Structure prediction request, 262 residues.
Amino acid sequence: MEKVFSQSELEAIAAALADTSEGLTGSEIAHILATLKMADPAPAMTKWKRLHNAFVERQNYSQNRRAILQFIREAMKPERYAKQPERFEAMRGNLNRALAFSGLAVSASGELHAVTRAETLTEAQRRADDLRADLTRRGVHPDVLRFCRAELVADNYFHAVLEATKSIADKLRAKSGLTEDGAKLVDATLCGSAPRVAINELTTESQRSEQSGFANLIKGVFGMFRNPTAHEARILWAMSKEDAEDLLSLASLIHRRLDAAR
Prediction:
């Protein structure tokens, strides 16, 4: 027998997708339902009730959850939010809190994957809220704050820091138009006598030294943290809140310098 969502799970998923301030608009809901050829039995109702009714009708008809999973994939395609990336992350956070009780999560690429089924999100949410509050007091860069989410700190702070570190490479690629990664990306963007990305005017020896030091700093972050943790078992990289805050503050410094770079 194929898996189905419980009624409470369907309610939570619909409420997350159709959140009043951060969720899909009514026209977006109508478009996705039509694209997937799903019935829209209550278009006049509030957004989340409309979506919930559509989900219930389809699941009752098909006796599986495949169409609902497809709706989630369609709704969470990152390219839909190219002009509003902050909206995508807010929706993803809300949706992952709902999906956690079904043993599912949406990745940063918009893909659904299996996770350990949650019994309660209280501890994970508390961790995320505490981390965000501390980093907000530090004035940490918004591009780093968005990684302080419950699903990323459910066990420890490993994933929050890993994702924030990946975002440094993403910004370097966006600034330079290159596709390399890791140390090769740093060499191609920040190093040499005429780097593609410069954090100062490079007219004095002191400025050239600062540029070189900044490149080495990013290489150090990739080499010390990102590269090993991307390949080693998570159990070897238990991370305290204090270490996470320090590393995320360092990532914030790098982001600010890259924002101001030419």
Notes: Residues 122-260 form one domain. The beta strands are 104-106, 112-114. The longest strand covers residues 104-106. The first helix runs from residue 7 to 17.
